[in-house]
Amino acid sequence: MKTNNRLSFALIMIVVVLLLLGCSNDTEKETLIIADQFGLAYAPIEIMKNQGFLREALDGAGLSTVTIEWKRLGNTTAIREAMLSEDLDIGFVGIPPFLIGVDNGMDWRIISGISQTPSALIASSKAVDSLEAIDDSTRIIVPQPGSIQHILLSMYAKRMYGDSKKYDHQLVAMSHPDGYTAMRTGASNTLHFTTPPFMQQEMKLENATVLLDGETCFGGPFTFIVGICPERIYDNPKIYTAFKNALEKSIEFIGTYPEDALEVLSESYDYSEADLKAYMDHPQMIYETDVRGLDAFVSFMVEEEILSDSILNSDLYWGSDNE
Amino acid sequence: MNKARIFFILFILTAWEIMGQSGLIHAGILPPFSDVVKRFGEMLFYEKLIQTTLYSIFMVLLAMGLSVIITVVLIILGRKYKWVGTNIELLHSIVSPLPGIAILPLVILWFGINVEAMLFILVHATLWPMWRQLALAVDRLHKQYNRLETVFHLSKFKRFFHIYVQGSLLDLKSALSVSWSRGWRALISVEMIFGMVGNQTGLGWLIYERRMYMDTEGLYAGLIAIGLCGVFFEALVFTKLKLGRVS
User: Where are the transmembrane segments (chain B) (predicted)?
Assistant: First the structure.
């Protein structure tokens, strides 16, 4: 009996150790896994997928054995966690969550910017016509704490009231579609900081009012979404270059062949071409590789102690040390 | 027995610490246990961990209080009018298997996003197990003391208090314990999935927020706080609660 006890005890210990070891995984990969999120800001990835630009580029680099896997994840945190456990190679995220990752030891950096996008804080009731009119019972829906929408709101609060955390106790975290559902109740105490196409859908609701737009918060244009990858991808120059070229080609495609792009996107996002055209024609909806406003995000987030000072010395772009 | 338990816990913690320190696993996935303890201390003393925990506990207790009142009303009505009783029974079997999270989207449509919505979900989570247990207890007591009541012509109050209330105290204790654990889980998951908060924020939101800020130590610390609360209430408060017994 006693030996049995000891034996089972030892077995349990072994299982625990194995479980802990299981947390790390390093497998040789022949698959390139790419993840984006939902929204029009990610349109170039849809184009890249649909037009086969990445496949073409990989084949051209002699990497025809590498398979490509596309994923769509709900938020940046999921992308970060997947990348951390090496289940993801290239991701597309908003700038602030990217910076939070760098600050906490993620070895990822920016490959390229992909888009600027309009964003707006919308009230579902005419009773609320400005941010000054809201009280403590008001709930502000953002995709997640630390998201670009949350940081934009903090920037506005800082400029207007000197307190970046003024609205923090009123935040509610919901994905864009859930936020849209909440807005449909028309409750006067609900605000939603959102982006296309949800922004336009909400504006069609009765009584919806825009209280604030993203550029006002930021004080100018800024890049919304950047493409990022960890060092292990950058260290593989063939894959890295192939991907970067394919991404640039996709962004160019939207500019050069807007009609074709519209057709592709309308199919993959399931919106009518007319609706989609209206969304894409918004003057703040811009697809480009430049990254704008990164320094302003860094200095604001360091000032507000969301990031530590050490990020000021980190390289945020791949390849910047060679230039 | 106890020694084995302590040894087991120590072993897990040591293994955790060694794995964390070894650098085999990114600290964003498994930080060393000592860092988690340090972060726990920081959050306890500087970052309102206590306030957050108390708020979460308060919300669940408030919902349980409401549930006790609603349960008493439901049972009285159910005994008085037969059709009410049958229908509560029906409602219970339809509604009680629904997890709080499942009804959250509906609740948001009905109430909007506010404390009332949160309380509604918590009451939903705590009410049904409580009603089930207490309704059964009252049935049992009724069968046991039915003749006594008629023979001695007990007044309504005497019947209610001395037979039903005192007689069901033990059941109340286990009902409270069950509904506490259901309420606690509902609260944490509601806060985590939809990040719904009152003017104060609770533990579910805390770990959700820590996750978003990639503060893995803080995330582990929050989980430890949730676990400790669960153990504290389930094992200590509701089990050791001294409730009188009818002889």
Answer: 54-78, 90-111, 186-207, 219-238
Average pLDDT, chain A: 88
Q: How far is CA B236 from CA B118, B228, B231, in A?
A: 26, 11, 7
What tokens were used for A314? Answer: 């980190």
Question: How far does the CA of residue B108 sit from the closest CA of chain A (Å)?
Answer: 6
Would you identify the CATH topology of the domain A120-218? D-Maltodextrin-Binding Protein; domain 2 (3.40.190)
Instruction: Quote the minimal CA–CA distance from B229 to chain A in Å.
Output: 23
- Determine the Cα angle at A296 with ends A291 and A301, to 5°: 120
H-assigned helices in chain B: 2-22, 33-46, 49-80, 82-95, 100-111, 115-152, 156-158, 166-167, 169-194, 203-212, 216-231, 238-240
The CATH fold of domain A31-117+224-313? D-Maltodextrin-Binding Protein; domain 2 (3.40.190)
> Can you give the residue ranges of every domain in chain B?
33-240
To which CATH superfamily is domain B33-240 assigned? Answer: MetI-like (1.10.3720.10)
Structure token pair of residue B86: 């049958």
pLDDT in tens, A52-66: 999 999 999 998 899
Q: Do domains A31-117+224-313 and A120-218 have the same CATH topology?
A: yes
* Cβ-based neighbour number of residue A253 at 10 Å: 20
A8/chain B closest Cα distance in angstroms: 12
Instruction: Nearest by CB to B213, from A146, A178, A189: name it.
Output: A146
Question: Which amino acid is residue A94, in one-letter code?
Answer: G
Would you state the structure tokens that stand for residue A319, as one six-digit string? 């390849």
- Three-class SS of B172-196: HHHHHHHHHHHHHHHHHHHHHHHCC
Query: Which among B12, B105, B114 has CB closest to A189?
Result: B114
pTM of the complete model = 0.80
* Structural domain boundaries in chain A: 31-117+224-313, 120-218
Instruction: Report the distance separating Cα B233 and Cα B60, nearest Å.
Output: 11
Residues B51-109 have pLDDT tens digits of 889 988 999 999 999 999 999 999 999 988 989 999 999 999 999 999 888 888 888 88
Quick one: which H or E segment has residue A153? helix A148-161
Is ipTM > 0.90 here?
Answer: no
B113 close contact with A: CB closer than 8 A? yes
Are the C-beta atoms of residues A291 and A226 closer than 8 Å to each other? yes
Q: Point out which residues pair with A141 in neighbouring strands.
A: A172, A192
Closest CA to A68 of A27, A30, A116: A30
Q: Which of A84, A144, A169 sits opposite B201 (nearest CB)?
A: A169
pLDDT tens per residue, range B91-100: 999 999 998 8
CB pair distance less than 8 Å for A20 and B16: yes
Sign of the dihedral defined by the CA atoms of residues A250, A255, A256, A262, in that order: positive
- Within 8 A by CB and 6+ apart from B160, the residues are none
